[in-house]
Amino acid sequence: MSENENNKDRRIDRSAIPLIAVRKQLERIVKDGNLKAAVLASSDGLTLVAPVNDDQSEAISALAGYLNKAKSLIEKNLLNTAATDITFTGQDGTTFHCRYLELFDELVTLAVITKGAAPSGEILSRAMSGIMRIMRKHDQLSTRHG
Predict the structure, then answer these.
(1) 32, 119, 122, 124: which has the fewest Cβ within 10 Å?
(2) pTM across the whole model
(3) Helices (H), the chain
(4) 141 is a domain residue
């Protein structure tokens, strides 16, 4: 499939419902990034959105919440600046990667597990910008109708 066909296909498979749109965004990065899993988790480790709601998604979200606490301690005591990513790499190259963003003044985590090498920055950036675009659009709609 060419890049134009891929983009066209991606644009057709959308939803006006924000949570479904974000789920579709995560499904797409799992496929395009050759990932085992991807979830959007709250700072306290609850699954906000996952392509598949199962025990693995819940475990990933819980671990992302736990790492958020560790991230805060590391930022405060070692970095003196905000961390954007945390990555753990297994001996076989499988990675558990968390990328952080703020949505509506709340810290959320995009947590992914790869099948091999670390996820590409392009895949993670595309996911984050897509999630932010979806949520901004939803916020604009709710402001107009609220």
Answers:
(1) 122
(2) 0.79
(3) 3-12, 18-32, 55-74, 121-145
(4) no
Listed residue (2, 25, 54, 12) closest to 127, CA to CA = 25
A 10 A CB-CB count for 135 gives: 17
CATH of the domain at 129: 3.30.450.30
Q: Residues 64-120: pLDDT tens digits? A: 999 989 988 999 999 888 888 898 989 988 889 999 988 778 889 999 998 877 677
Torsion sign (Cα): 72, 48, 60, 118: negative
The answer to whether residue 1 sits within a structural domain is no
Is 46 among the domain residues? Answer: yes
Which domain range does residue 127 map to?
18-136
